[in-house]
Amino acid sequence: MPDVAGQAFAQEAAGENGEFDFIAVNDLHFTDERLCTPWFAKAFAAMRASAPKAEFVIVSGDLTSENTDMEFGGINRCFPS
């Protein structure tokens, strides 16, 4: 049994060489539907291009600036499916 939560999954995901790719981003601060939506589309496309084999994305920090429904809805729609 692994000592650390998630360690078994990480070992399973690591594949044959014991490595895996992931993306880490922080403090996205979605603020405006009109300005942020196209910017995040470009940013997420660049992330996929830079790490095409990434198995997951870690998002830490603030997703929004003012915690409004518009901001949370906007950033949610920006995340790729």
Characterise this structure.
- The structure is a single chain.
- With 81 residues, the protein is mainly α.
- Helices cover 43% and strands 10% of the residues.
- The protein has 3 helices and 2 strands; from the N terminus they run αβαβα.
- Strands 1-2 form a two-stranded parallel ribbon.
- The chain is elongated and about 45 Å long.
Report the β-strand fraction as a percent range. Answer: 5-15%
Largest pleated sheet: 2 strands, parallel
Low-confidence stretches: none
Helix-residue proportion: 40-55%
State the separation between the terminal residues, measured CA to CA.
Answer: 33 Å
Elements, N to C (H/E):
HEHEH
Write the layout of secondary structure elements.
Elements: H1 7-13, E1 23-26, H2 33-50, E2 57-60, H3 69-78
Parallel strand pairs: 1-2
Helix pairs in contact: 2-3
Task: Write out key terms for the chains shown.
10% strand, 81 residues, elongated, mainly alpha, single chain
Entry summary:
The chain is mainly alpha-helical and 81 residues long.
